[in-house]
């Protein structure tokens, strides 16, 4: 029998990640699986190659805000009866998601996706697609329902 006990939800705190979380919760609940929340702070790329105090403070502020949001989300899920682990790391999202999944024995990864195509996808790439191609475990790619009013 297949046993799934460790789920990973990488989050950027967007509505796309929130939507993927609903799927993770629905599957985790009956299996009593733990949910790992992961936020990856991507390094700021400096055009000149030099850093200055204002950008360093900005990165620190983003880190602290992410930690606060992650803690609130962890508290909410714990109150809903889930076992939750939360982690903030610095690095490139695709690499860090795959590293975390491997190190923590993750059985399944749930990721929200924007569903971008064409030039947007070419310009911004797709973390979800990269994780999907390289992951040792199944990846559930959750797309937002289309907004019919647009």
Protein described:
It is a single chain. With 150 residues, the chain is an alpha/beta fold. The radius of gyration is 16 Å and the shape is globular. Helix 3 packs parallel to helix 5 (127-134). Strand 1, helix 1 (15-31) and strand 2 form a beta-alpha-beta unit. It has five helices and five strands, in the order βαβαβαβααβ. The longest helix has 27 residues, at 53-79. It has a single domain, classed as HUPs (Rossmann fold), CATH 3.40.50.620. The termini are far apart.
**CATH architectural group:** 3-Layer(aba) Sandwich
Structural class: alpha/beta
The H-level CATH homologous superfamily, spelled out, is HUPs
Give, in spatial order, the strands making up the sheet with the most strands: 3-2-1-4-5
Helix content: 40-55%
Q: How many H/I helices?
A: 5
Order of helices and strands: EHEHEHEHHE
- What is the CATH C-level name? Alpha Beta
Instruction: Give the end-to-end Cα distance, rounded to a whole number of Å.
Output: 45 Å
Overall, the morphology is: globular
Strand content: 15-25%
Major sheet characteristics: 5 strands, parallel
**Oligomer category:** single chain
Features:
globular; about 150 residues; about 20% strand; Rossmann fold; 5 strands; 5 helices; five-stranded parallel sheet; single chain; alpha/beta
């Amino acid at each position: 029998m297949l046993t799934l006990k460790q789920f990973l939800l990488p989050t950027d705190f967007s509505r796309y990640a929130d939507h993927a979380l609903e799927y993770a919760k629905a599957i985790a609940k009956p299996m009593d699986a733990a949910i790992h929340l992961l936020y990856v702070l991507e390094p700021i790329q400096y055009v000149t190659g030099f850093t200055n105090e204002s950008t360093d403070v900005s990165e620190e502020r983003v880190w602290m805000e992410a930690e606060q949001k992650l803690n609130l989300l962890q508290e909410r899920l714990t109150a809903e009866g889930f076992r939750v682990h939360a982690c903030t790391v610095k690095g490139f999202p695709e690499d860090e998601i795959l590293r975390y999944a491997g190190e923590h024995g993750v059985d399944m990864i749930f990721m929200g996706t924007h569903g971008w195509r064409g030039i947007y996808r070419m310009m911004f790439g797709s973390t979800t697609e990269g994780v999907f191609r390289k992951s040792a475990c199944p990846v559930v790619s959750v797309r937002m329902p289309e907004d019919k009013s647009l």
